[in-house]
Every structure is written in C-alpha cells, then in structure tokens.
Amino acid sequence: MFGARTLLGGSLLFAAIAAGCDDRAIREAEERAKAASQPAKTQAPTATAAAKEAPKIEKADKDIFKVLPAEFASDTNPITEEKVTLGRMLYYEARMSLGQDVSCNSCHKLDRFGVDNEPTSEGHKKQRGGRNSPTVLNAAGHVAQFWDGRAATVEDQAKGPILNPVEMAMPDAASVVRVIKSIPGYAPLFKAAFPKAADPITYDNIALAIGAFERKITTPARWDKYLAGDETALTDQEKAGFAKFSKLGCPTCHNGVNVGGAQYQKLGLVNPWPDQSDLGRFGVTKNDADKMFFRVPTLRNVAKTGPWFHKGQLTALEEVVRKMAHHQLGQELTDEDVSNLIAFLNSLTGTVDAKYVAKPELPPSGPTTPKPRID
After folding, report:
1. Do the domain assignments include residue 99?
2. Taking CA 260 as the corner, what is the angle to CA 255 and CA 261, rounded to the nearest 5 degrees?
3. Does residue 354 belong to any structural domain of this protein?
C-alpha cells in the first residue's frame, strides 16, 4: 500500500494542477512532491538518539575521577629544571643502547602520544619484545609501571629497558655510565642536576633525571575541564557515553586521575580471555591468584595509543570496547552504546606540550665514546 509520504506528494501535485497553476508553480509542486516521497534520512551514528538530550550526570559519578595535575611530584625525586633538561636529553639518547640506535623514545614516541603504534616494539638487532609498549604520557601517576607492575616508579622503569637484551641490550649499568662519562658535554649537566653528588654520573642518577622529565609529561583534556565544572566541555554524545560508562560499572577499574592505572585487575573477569599465553602479574609474584592479572591501563589518550592490550592484539577501538564489556562485565553492547562510549573515550584525548617534549640537541661523542655494537 501507499505510505503517508507518497499520498502527501500526490496531493500536493494534484492540488497545483486542479488550481490551474502556471508551469512554474506546477514544477515547484512536482519538486515538493518528489521531496515528500523520499524516505526520511537516518541520523548519523555519531548523533544517536541517546545523545540528543544530554543525561544528567550525578556528582557521585564524577567524584571518583580527578583533574590531571600539571606534574606528578615525588618526595624521593624532586623535580628541578636542571634535572628535567638532562632527563629530556637522556630520554632521546640512543648511545645508551648497545647498537646506539634505540632510545626511550624509540618505543615511547613523544610525538605519537607516548607509544609507537606497533603491537610490540623493535629493539636491539630488530628483535621484538613480548608485550605492547604502554604510553609514557601521565605514566608517573600510575600505581606501578609495566603491564605486570614489576617497577614501582618511572625512575625504576627507566632502568629496565636499557639493560634488557631484547631492547637496548647494554651489558650492565657500569657500561652505561662509561658511555655517558665519555661524552664530554654531559659532565656539567649532571653536575647542575645533582650538585651535592661527589660523582654525579651514576646509573641511579640517569634514571632520576629521566624520571623527573617524565613526571611533567601530562596531557590535559576537555575531560578535565568537565570535571572542573565546565558542563560545555563535553558534547551531549560524550556525556551520554560517560553515563553509559558509569552505568556499566567501568569506573570500578578505570577511575582516578588517569581513568585507570591505579590497580591490578584480572583480564577475563567474567568471561575468560581467549589468549592466556601471557599470565601477567603471575610472572612477577608466582602467586596463582595473580594469573591473568595486569595493571589496568589508563584511558587517557586511549583513542591514540592503539593497537591495544598487552600484546597489541586489537586494532579497532570498537572491538576493544565490545570485548571489554563482554569479558570484564558480561555485557553485550548495542551499536549506539559503542558509538557513545567511543565518543566519551575521545574526550579523554589530551594535549601534548610539543615544546616540552621536543628532541633537544645532544652533545657530541668524545674520543673514547664506544662505537655501536651489533653482537
């Protein structure tokens, strides 16, 4: 049978002819009739019905998060300008690797939101590690470092990759110190950063300088403005996504200043994770209760830090959202839910201070600086 739009179009045209209208009027009536007969346009996925009217967000739903600070201070490693200047240089210093071709920035690229966008990263002699490189942005605010939490702070974390045979492959800490001491330009920088040290160039001080630099790599986002009281900072759809995020129970794990990173959680809490070849924190503690437990990743900048999960298994954020709902919450999401949740996750993308993270000019090698080794 004819639909209402078809009948309406026919009525418009018939009325124009019956009234004895001229050709122009008839043509206009025909155009209106044609338009009336067309099916109604559907809404774009990013403007779903649920997002048309922003839901009311209760204060309690926002109180479990915190506005991002300008820096993550440390009682044991006070941040100074001299330490940051040195740490920035060391972050980009590839001569601290055996082949002199890998630096911290190789895997945690500061112009790519602190990751390399690879499932696993390439290290010494192009070897690949077993886990995805997590972002270094805002990482100083995490409960611990690495997926399994084996390093307590960013300073502890900075020591690991340098001596890892798959990553930077230096044989020992003494070898790293010898390289840095052989580069004349570093001596005054270490002296300025650690003025009370009799011998300022040490492996511990290398890590302290890198840590001080990383503690100020924060990425404020529109999300922070929203938490601070600016209701216009998020779109209606982003608010709908946050409402769904809260209703599902996601903040049980993804909470605090980094919307994650504050605890360990089992991957596959409700429905088992299909790949259990990596048992996570169990490898550190050897406690059966820790099997498949990982440090909860931050959701800040998550839309920019794929591929996702500890092995970089997933390459589409939509799939990440669906799998988290299924495996962690036992929920199956509608397309509208996914669209709104992704909109919310995009609101967590922050701004990187390009000037702060820009690669500095590094001091030239000295006559005794070792040559690259590929053994």
Report:
1. yes
2. 130
3. no
